[in-house]
Amino acid sequence: MKGFQAAARGIAATGVTHVFGLLGDGNLTMITHLAATSGIEFVRARHESGAVTMASGFQRASGRRAIASVTQGPGLTNALTALTAAVRDRVPLLLVVGDVAPNDLYHLQRSDHAAIAALAGAGFVESREPSQIEADIAATMAVAEREQRPYVLNIPETLLTADADGTDEGTAPPQLTREPDVEPDVEPDVEPDVERVRVREPDDIERVAELLTSARRPVLLAGLGAAKAAAGPALRELGRRTGALLATTLMAHGLFADDPWSVGVSGGFSTPQAMDLLADADLVVSFGARLNALTTAGGRLYRSASIVQVDLDEAALGERVSPTVTLAGDARRVAQELVSALEARDTPVHVGYRSDRVRRLLDDWDPERWPTGDAVGETIDPRTFSAVLSRTLPRERTIVVDTGHFMQFPSTHLLPPDERGFLLSVGFGSLGLSLGTAIGAAVGRPDRVTIATMGDGGFLMALAELETVARLAPRLVIAVFNDAAYGAEVHHLRAKQMPDEIAFFPSVDIAAVAASMGIASRVVRTAGDVESLNAKDFDRPLLLDARVDPGAVAPYFARKYPTG
């Protein structure tokens, strides 16, 4: 058995159903052998950035293991932005990279892969023996999951072409009953999930329970850490017992999707009602949330509230705010401990923040119907487009949002069914990552319709992957907020009282571009253009070229960059 065959066996042994990638000299033998012998589908991207974002979207939407593969040198540098975003989004994926022979000093594609991975913030493992390739893949995948970040596994050409131990028996995965004894050349900096319990002071839980029972306007805030820990049910029960309102960070949007006492997203993307309620909170218990500027609306929220911060990552405690109490631990377990403490006290259920007045405030907000906004000329208000799209699409959906000025509109008015139904592609602040993310999500959750939302700038950056959409034909709606501009830069320039013409571009007929690739498409100028869609339209790729009003300003931008 050759090294490339061992690599294919190792990938198959992880249990993945799909590998996302782009072939090149460095990885073509192992990937071709994998695709031919394993039954694993190799999803071919048109750009390495697309391959990594597809793997990221697949993992985030499905919760299953994700592997991508690219070639050496420019293959890895092309993936750098997407890899950095996956690191920032804390996605545990494995990127298998072929590399030039160590002694080929003048190879055109030679580059320092370890340094590139370090620049992204990803882990890095170098395979050193052909006989250890399978074990390296298994162990590196385990460490990526342990640390909740991407890892690059680097396999030089000399190992892939060398003889490995054993015989070629195809890529049928061995039956692994435990993690392999061989560990890669890395030191994990986070304990495994089974050890997610931290030593705390004995009275910490009691102290927080006392704060919750004495608070008049408590809020439970859930972040990505809470979503990853599956803390939703425990937090709902804790909220019921204490009368706390429920809120999430943008990264955990959807965790409380069907709860009547959820105010939605906390911070810059809050509804007007939520902003008022959260600003008036007297206690905030944060579970797995970093409490950054977006979550606190630049510090405007929670100014007078006592803050309890719960996080598995001890370095995050007190990093952005000065909490009254900190608890290091898993969000779900801490929430359960708090419920148990309240039960032991025989504490009656509080009304807290769940009053009739608050109920009326929450009932006044319907993101799918208000506000509609008046557009200029033959354009549609982006709020109207988002709201009518949410009303028209099937409820079982995955929403993917790109970076850009437009992003608050779908984030506010397109409603996700749960926390895996909302994927934000802003970890590194780069445009153009949502299309690949959405393709991966659609592959990972074919039972749901995936909606990729992006501006025209982000769409044109990711244009190559439109061919991937046409080829795979997933249940994917591409909603382009087309204002013929880089909208964020337009509003930045206006806030600085500088000319904005440089941020505008000639209008591109994006619907025609999609149609040229065989993708159903339509231009959207009115609500009726969306409302006329039917269920069959969502069973195949569909592109909506929404000609949105370039003068519509997202509330977050209006607050952060006032022009008056």
Automatic annotation (TrEMBL):
Keywords: Thiamine pyrophosphate. Residues 182-192 have a biased composition (Acidic residues). It holds the Pfam family TPP_enzyme_C. It comes from the Bacteria. Residues 205-338 form the Thiamine pyrophosphate enzyme central domain. Gene3D superfamilies: 3.40.50.970, TPP-binding domain (3.40.50.1220). GO terms for biological process: isoleucine biosynthetic process; L-valine biosynthetic process. One of its GO terms (molecular function) is thiamine pyrophosphate binding. Residues 413-545 form the Thiamine pyrophosphate enzyme TPP-binding domain. Residues 160-192 are annotated as: Disordered. Residues 1-108 form the Thiamine pyrophosphate enzyme N-terminal TPP-binding domain. One of its GO terms (cellular component) is acetolactate synthase complex. The keyword Glycosyltransferase does not apply. InterPro entries: DHS-like_NAD/FAD-binding_dom, THDP-binding, Thiamin_PyroP_enz_cen_dom, Thiamin_PyroP_enz_TPP-bd_dom, TPP_enz, TPP_enzyme_TPP-bd. PANTHER family: ACETOLACTATE SYNTHASE CATALYTIC SUBUNIT, MITOCHONDRIAL, THIAMINE PYROPHOSPHATE ENZYMES. Belongs to the TPP enzyme family. This is Acetolactate synthase large subunit. It comes from Sinosporangium album.
